[in-house]
Batch of 4 targets.
Target 1
Amino acid sequence: MERFTISLDESLARQFDQLIAERGYSNRSEAVRDLIRGAIESDRQRETPAGHCVANLSYVYNHHERELAERLTGLQHDHHDLTVAALHSHLDHDNCLESVILKGATADVRQFADALMAERGVRHGKLNLIALEAEHHHAHDEHGAAHVHYRPAR
């Protein structure tokens, strides 16, 4: 671990301590590390899509909207290589919330998410994307096929 010191005025320090308490952090260091990771990931997401990612796409839609549910399901089937899992929840008599876990090339995941959120009748769409980096190519034993593992970028 590397240590560094920051200075905060009293008001900002008090607000930060309140945030730490509300979010359940055990200390300031953990909170600062999460803030830094978030800032780095936010900057990374502004860059041109590259590499691989894992993502959660969440959205709300009215299931009475003409053929919308079928169009959304069709899009997911058309991109079955990106779609890992989907969770469907009924919010009320009209609205559904779906959360779709995606994994693949970042450009492909973003393009799919944008297309799905652009469907007429989809509201409150949000993509939470986490960049992945390739570890190494390997096989688990002498009979296994060589493959790559991806882990969240640091």
Note: The chain has four helices and five strands.
Target 2
Amino acid sequence: MGLISWVRRRLGIKSPLQRRIELQELITRAWEVTDPASRDVLITYAPQRLNGIPDTGEIVWAWVPYAEDPEQGKDRPMLVIARHDTLRVYALKLTTKARPGAQNLMLLGPGTWDNHKRDSWIEMDKLYSIHHQGIRREASPLDRHRFMYIAQALADRHGWRVQI
């Protein structure tokens, strides 16, 4: 290790490359949308099988921070429901762990996004914005029937518009 690197590390000074990497991680990180206006969310269905871009109607995997500690998180399957802007999409988390009596979960069923073919549930009350570069991988498109069912439930619950 060179003297400059050692001094930077000891003083906590980050190199331009380290700052650029951290900025890129912040830009591409998934973040929870705490108060989406109903006019801002237009749910559409337009999956294009494994084209490298997250499309509405697809299940994708993205790193999502924990609510308790945003510096920690994990890769999770997410259902893309709408475009946020040209570089970001709106998505909902999937879970395989249903909590009895949970009002925020909606059964999605099994799919190819889970290697063990377990039932999955959509978490209906937390909307995330994910940058295209924050998508780890595309898993599979959700069939139109299940997507429409979820879209209607989201419209009823949140007042979001649906255009399918």
Note: The mean pLDDT is 85.
Target 3
Amino acid sequence: MYQQMIFVNLPVNDLDASKKFFTELGYTINPQFSNENAASVVISDTIVAMLLTKPFYATFTKKQIADATTTSEVLVCLSAESREKVDELVDKAIAAGGTASGPTQDHGFMYGRAFDDLDGHTWEVMWMDPAAVEGQG
């Protein structure tokens, strides 16, 4: 069965620093789709973050590239299998040089935290109680 994938393309200032950041979170770099202008960060079987140098990113758009440290253009939200996994990933991100972003969200059935990566892109990490999801329509 076909599984649709998502490739999140993000402009970065320092490709090597960004690769180091994401590998410190436990993700891998797919060398087949990486070079001096891009790094393919494998988040899961169906999610890939493409880190692109700003000059290379600019070849894909005629729009101005947002400065993610001052402008929000996208919030990337990743699911986690437990509250502990939410904390684990966000704590790794902070230890690797990222910054906490916003308050912890604890709604009982749903728990989340967020971090900004080295370039200011916001990554939310969210756990939702499977029983609450199954109870939805």
Note: Residues 3 and 63 are 30 Å apart (CA to CA).
Target 4
Amino acid sequence: MKITMIAGSNQRSATSTRLAEYIEHLATQEGHQVTLIDLYQTPLPFYSPDNANAGHEALEKLKEAMLEAEGIVLATPEYHSGISGVLKNALDHLGQDHFNNKVVLSVSSAGGAVAVSSLTQMQTIVRNLHGINCPDWLSIGGDQRKSFQTGVTYQDIHPDVDKRVRRVVGSFLKLTKQLAVKLV
């Protein structure tokens, strides 16, 4: 399957991006084709409804990857009980044709214990874009974030965190596969 992931942080060492990279690793190990769009590495222009950004290379690659995707992962840090501005900007560039009937896994990293507000916001956006929210979501916070700091290898991820991430990613991939088969 083709999975497109958007890592929506504007920070080089974001734990949400490192978590997205780990999800990419897990999905690739299962034989899936994954496109990870890191908004820190490939920033997008500010959204404008007058289509002023037509032809922007990074934006066109994002749109193409989203159209080809059978499943989508959105990852964000939680800032002030919300998703990052760069992720919201990226989502504003997209429409229902990018999300319609595709399973979307929402992922967040928070300085506190959990990141429920940003996950809820992502699920609302996905619903309005006619995507299908994965029943599971993934939030890391507090000490759990240490597993995804720079320099930590995948083998050093805390076993409880690793088990949860693997379970949620497995559930997402299973649902995506089931839905992709029914749509063919």
Note: Residues 127 and 133 are 7 Å apart (CA to CA).
